[in-house]
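Recall the central idea of this unit: under ordinary conditions, the amino acid sequence of a chain determines the structure it adopts. In this exercise we apply that idea directly, starting from the sequence alone.
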Amino acid sequence: MELISAWDRIEAELGVSLRDNFLMPVRTLDNPKVFTTLVLRSRGRRVAIFDDVESGNVEALALPPDLGVVYRRWYFTFDDLGRELPPRTLAQAVRKAGLDDDDIAVDPDLPVALFDELAGEFRVAVAAPAAPEAPVAVTAVPRAEVAARLRAGRAEAGPVVLGSLLARSPIRAAIAPYLEPPPERRFAELDRLLAGAGLAAVLVSSRLNAQEIAGLPLARVPRPLAVLYPAGGPSAYVIGPGGGGTGRGHATAGAALRSLLPAGRIGIEAEDLGIGLFRALGLESRDTAPADRLLRRWRDREARLDLAYYVLAARASAFAIESALAFAAAAVGEGREIGEREVDARYLAGLGAYVRESGLPVTVTRLMTNHHCGTRTLRPANPADYPVSAAVNTLKIDAGCMIFDGGGFLLACSDIARTLNFSPAAREIYPALVAGVRETLIPAARAGAVAEDVFEAGTEAVWGRRGRMACRGLAPDLPSLGAVYDRDVGHLLGRNDLAHLRFARGDRGRLEDGMVACLEYQWPTRGHALAYEDACVVTPSGGLNFTSDGAP
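Accordingly, the structure predicted from this sequence is:
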């Protein structure tokens, strides 16, 4: 049995682009291959393994008729309560595919985390023959130079945002100190985290963390093989293909790593680093440990440096979403025929217009756009050729953008949601979701708060208003919401939509002053997909909602 993870091969199997048609390949920047689609092949049969969150996107596509489909990792909807849910793990999904083979050949780019998971239940081998040992070049980038690259132009952004975007905001005075660049602490903080985890160094492979550790602009510099940062050292080391470039040459990647760090435990991006490169670096014979969550915690703590750009990203997203939904409401009210794609075009136009109007020397691109009618799918989905009318019950846009400077550095991202409600039930429920976010969740996002406690406060706040929901049939008959709401009510942002902390049941992580958070409710049931989400900065007295001037 063969498990295909290389994106070009998967796209050939599906006949569609992953980035253009699915959510997970674009939603996260440090581990997309952990969540992306995979394809199993055995004895002439093909089965695609999708995350359950992608089912709305899958249903909108004309996939090959001989392609079987298995879902994993349930995306919460009220309608699924009491039903058989998809398997949680990849290994369980492979078993469910029913190809009856305990031998799996995998692509060399399969992340180490997935390889190790499969190896616990199957006999796993790398399908491609071992690549010949090739020379590499190592370039040292001093810590001070990295910090300077990642701070360039930051001091100028705060006053612009405070004087224009937040000029009429009720939180203007309270947020002003947070828009002043804090003292440089990037590598000191990373050193502290590495020491706490007993790591002598961290080795990263994602473009996001190559930017954060080696100062390689995400949108401009090709992805290197890896970046090594020895804890407490003066430099980060970029390991790239040898031959004709700058940097110190080594016969192999493994020889380079041994030269840079002869001994010591190495933290790795297990959710990004391919098993082939892991072996080429000689890491099978080294002491390694996953460092993915550690790196996310580090980025979440560093978000305050670029708070001005998070404000811009959030307000641009909110403006674009609200403009697109106003367009849809007017069109439906006038009886004009429109579809989800026309609404999405208005969203993109509004996004670009808002950022240009800010006057800051930055550009904006789409991060992800969950944009769908409630009658089409209850799960997140890209805009499709689906008509928008009052009969769809709800039109939800849950979207995020990325802000880049002129040098190609990713500065910030956003994740904001709004819903256009057509049915009487949706119009009654939606204000409860808005109030829950603005009046309970964001105020609860204070420094020192435990993530699970914020979750419990948020679910109780909505459940206290469940009378209207129940009478309209859009709430389950349960003793509490928190006991069944098997998802989060928000997360942090650290230049990425995936954070080390989620406001969810069981997450005991604590919020810290200056972190950037998104707080939300998703309410999918009975042909209604409702969502509301705002962003804030965490302070000792609670979150400061910088998404719109109407927020308390």
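The mean pLDDT is 94.
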